[in-house]
Amino acid sequence: MIKTLLGFIRKEFRQTLRDPRMRLLLFIAPCVQLTIFGVALSTEAKNIRLSVFGAPTDVSLQELHRKALASGWFIPAKVTSNDPYEQVKSGEADAVLVAPSEGLDKSLGRGEGRVQLLVNATNVTRGQSIERYFLSIVRSLYPQNPPVQFDVRVLYNPALRTALFLVPGVMSLLVCLITILLTSMSITKEKELGTFETLIAAPVKPEEVILGKTIPFVLLGMSNIPLIVGVAMALFGMPLRGSLLVLLLSAFVFVCCTVGIGLFISTIAKNQQQSMMGGFLYLFPSVLLSGLVFPIENMPWAMRIFSYINPLTYFIELLRNIMLKGGDARLIVFNILILAAMATIAITASWQRFKTTLS
After folding, report:
1. Roughly how many angstroms between the first and final C-alpha of the chain, as a whole number?
2. At CB < 8 A and 24+ separation, what contacts does 107-110 make?
3. Is 75 in contact with 69 (CB distance < 8 Å)?
4. Each residue of 261-291: pLDDT tens digit?
5. What residues are paired with 52 via a beta bridge?
6. Which of 108, 157, 216, 231 is the 20 to 30 Å CA partner of 54?
7. 47: three-class secondary structure by DSSP
């Protein structure tokens, strides 16, 4: 029995390790990912985009702004709107300092010194950190008796519920998981069952096969969207402040993109085991570098590049903006166009790869 068992073990080791791609997935990929994530991931709130709404001649307000930027936690926000609420809604600013109507200088002269601080709380941890940072800055600026008091307005998540931040990300992850893993095994399953040769011999064009492999999984992915949104609203109290049609359009473009990526993985892999490994190898960094849990602003620029070529990053931002903020038109159009471009590239690459395989 022991001899037979050892024979099976040797066979499985040989079968698994003789393929260079499997050796790469098993030994090199984990080391690379651990190195990348160790550098990129941090829960500390940094690079918070700060805007100031007040007169440039308001010395006290400008001093508070300079002190905040000098702290290393904040960076100046590049804003195009003169409305502080719109700056937060569009994502141009994470926090806005709003001076009193008469200016902070005069307000301090009367012994009041109240400043309104608008905080984007779609990311709960980041929102709480912003308030703590400002209290620390004021104490360092006025160590004896801080005359400045903040009237904090927590926008889009006033109860600071973590679920409202995490649920859109989990929704995106579920759609991504379903579409990529199912699609990545579609062609490799044909290879293992021996029906791939039938496809090659059949009088069909490569684009017809690609569409035949793509459309069913797009429909399956889209069929999950109403279910996932309904569960999120019913169980977790997720609001839907924006348009449901815009949300469905965003989801459709994202699903086309992830199906294209899954299909491309299936054209590279030789069997379902490699497809499964390739899907997880893609999903793991995709999730961690998407901003689902760890803020993208905290990552070094070299790591941030991977976040900006990650479809999950844009869909999570779309869901949070549509469901929590009501949907900013410029942000929605920009993100949908990015996802559409990624979907086009992924499906075209799959088609080219499949065409080469048929040849």
Report:
1. 47
2. 108/60, 108/147, 108/148
3. yes
4. 988 888 888 777 778 888 888 888 888 888 8
5. 97
6. 157
7. coil
